[in-house]
């Protein structure tokens, strides 16, 4: 989780003077380096002590350490600036054609960013976990879990059992899994260790379950606990946005890569099984377009 996202998370949790500091930081993020700590306290109607407490709440020793990390993140975001704003790709004045173009850019850039962030060694470890698992369970919340459902659908077409852990049953399911199983844990923030599904990571690890984490970049709880983590495109804010355009596209891309790498390990067998079953189960389907028809 990046700093901007951590600040948003802090503002959701704390509604004291630290909220006012966070609001000022987000509003003035491009120019924050120009302000002294005294000016920030003055303009946010707080105090110097509150500004320091704000930084410490985020895990820094003080304001100077926070600013060093914040400036570094701003430079990174500037160097990797997207053509479209992932949080607000359009506004009230945007035309239909502008919206079409903006959403296209957001999704393409999200896929490119996700591909750049994929660690091949980590991906191979994740595929190994899937191959050796007798049972695969996906843990996550809406809307991420719906994208996990598409992955589940693909996997069962090649005879690999995958299930979705439902809300209210995650605790029971996590207790039933063993070292022969694999869990896929999805959390964009990757930081709320006391809420579902993150709170079940200790149980899964205690049961020696192989766990694949999918989360945003930066430091978070998931990365500290798991040895196999795949990184989603991380430019989207937690709350201040129109929708999850970028993260949904990123997550779907990661799942498609996971499925494809798994498929490729036993390409001939998987392809034969899928084709044979498709002909039987989908024999009633027919195509209008010539390009869609099988020979």
UniProtKB/TrEMBL annotation:
The protein's name: RpiR family transcriptional regulator
Any one Gene Ontology BP term: carbohydrate derivative metabolic process
Gene symbol of the encoding locus: glvR
InterPro entries: Homeodomain-like_sf, HTH_RpiR, RpiR-like, RpiR-like_SIS, SIS_dom, SIS_dom_sf, WH-like_DNA-bd_sf
Pfam families: HTH_6 (PF01418), SIS (PF01380)
Coiled-coil stretches noted in the UniProt entry, renumbered to this chain: none
GO molecular function, one term: carbohydrate derivative binding
Domain (SIS) ranges: 126-269
SUPFAM superfamilies: Homeodomain-like, SIS domain
Alphabetical keyword list: DNA-binding, Transcription, Transcription regulation
Domain HTH rpiR-type: 1-77
PROSITE patterns assigned: HTH_RPIR (PS51071), SIS (PS51464)
Species this chain originates from: Amedibacterium intestinale
């Amino acid at each position: 989780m990046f700093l901007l996202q951590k600040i948003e998370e802090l503002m959701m949790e704390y509604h004291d003077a630290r909220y006012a500091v966070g609001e000022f930081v987000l509003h003035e993020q491009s120019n924050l380096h120009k302000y002294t700590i005294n000016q920030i306290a003055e303009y946010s109607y707080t105090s110097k002590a509150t500004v320091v407490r704000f930084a410490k709440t985020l895990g820094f020793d003080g304001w100077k350490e926070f600013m060093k990390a914040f400036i570094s993140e701003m430079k990174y975001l500037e160097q990797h600036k997207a053509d479209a704003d992932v949080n607000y790709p359009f506004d009230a004045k945007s035309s239909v054609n502008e919206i079409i173009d903006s959403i296209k850019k957001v999704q393409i850039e999200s896929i490119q960013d996700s591909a750049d962030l994929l660690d091949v060694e980590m991906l191979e470890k994740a595929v190994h976990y899937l191959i050796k698992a007798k049972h695969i369970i996906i843990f996550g919340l809406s809307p991420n879990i719906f994208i996990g459902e598409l992955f589940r659908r693909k996997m069962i077409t090649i005879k690999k059992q995958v299930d979705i852990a439902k809300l209210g049953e995650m605790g029971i399911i996590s207790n039933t899994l063993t070292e022969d199983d694999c869990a896929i844990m999805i959390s964009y923030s990757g930081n709320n260790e006391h809420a579902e599904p993150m709170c079940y990571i200790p149980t899964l690890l205690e049961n020696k379950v192989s766990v694949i984490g999918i989360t945003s970049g930066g430091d978070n709880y998931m990365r500290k606990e798991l040895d196999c983590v795949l990184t989603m495109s991380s430019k989207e804010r937690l709350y201040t946005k129109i929708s999850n355009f970028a993260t949904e596209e990123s997550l779907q891309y990661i799942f498609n890569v996971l499925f494809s790498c798994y498929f490729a390990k036993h390409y001939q067998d998987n392809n034969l099984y899928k084709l044979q079953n498709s002909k039987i189960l989908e024999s009633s389907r027919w195509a209008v377009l010539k390009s869609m028809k099988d020979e």
